[in-house]
Amino acid sequence: MSAREEELLQRVEALIAETQRDAERVARQDAERDQRREEAARSGALGPDWQEVQRRVDAGDTTLQDVFGGTDTTPAALRLREQSRATIEATAAELPLELREEAEAAQHDLDRIEGRA
Question: Composition bias, kind Basic and acidic residues: at what positions (predicted)?
Answer without folding.
Answer: 22-41
